[in-house]
Amino acid sequence: MKMSLAQRVLLSWIFALIFLIMLVLKLDSKIHWSWFLIFLPVWTFDTILILMLVVKMTGRCKPDFDPRDGEQSLKRRFWYLTALFLKLAFCLTLCSRLEKLTDMWVSVVCVPLWVLLGGALVELGHSVFHYRRD
Questions:
Q1: Could you tell me which of 91, 76, 84 has the C-alpha nearest to residue 124?
Q2: Which residues contact 97 (CB under 8 A, 6 or more apart)?
């Protein structure tokens, strides 16, 4: 399952556009759907990304696989998978808070987002200031 860059960008834009249209309609009170339904395009896109990452990570388990990038590529993909699950957790807690299913503080709802942003900063710092020991 290999998608070109243009296809990936187009798919991202389509899901983002559908989500934003549904969000604007919900905030303008034009539709009275559940917040879980409003976030469905985001979750669909995340599910596609998770499936693609899992397929790529399990492809490394083949006995005839030749690792070029080695362990770093697997670690990076594991971080991407963790980041997607953190984003998913944030969306779920946000929807449950907006639907008034739980009585959580907003700061508790944002914990997965803060962990995600902290991890992204660490990843950025590691990729910018990383040096090779040859």
A1: 76
A2: 104, 106, 109
